[in-house]
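Deliverable D2.4 — example input (structure tokens):
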């Protein structure tokens, strides 16, 4: 399954803040952030719904995150 989130990650430095934790729960190369997109889309490839965990990671680092459909 692919999970999509609208975020307020503004630059690669912001992405670096969450990278280790995202990789820990999703595995290497299973997530990406398009900071060039107006919604700063975070895309996560996963076998189960880990939406709450993803949102917790971003919120704990001071970022917003909402599910895109």
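Example output (designed residues):
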């Amino acid at each position: 399954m692919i999970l999509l989130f609208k975020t307020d990650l503004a630059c690669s430095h912001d992405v670096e803040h969450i990278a280790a934790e995202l990789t820990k729960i999703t595995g290497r190369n299973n997530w990406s952030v398009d900071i060039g997109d107006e919604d700063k889309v975070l895309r996560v490839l996963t076998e189960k719904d880990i939406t709450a965990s993803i949102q917790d990671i971003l919120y704990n680092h001071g970022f917003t995150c909402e599910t895109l459909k």
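The helical segments are 12-26, 51-60.
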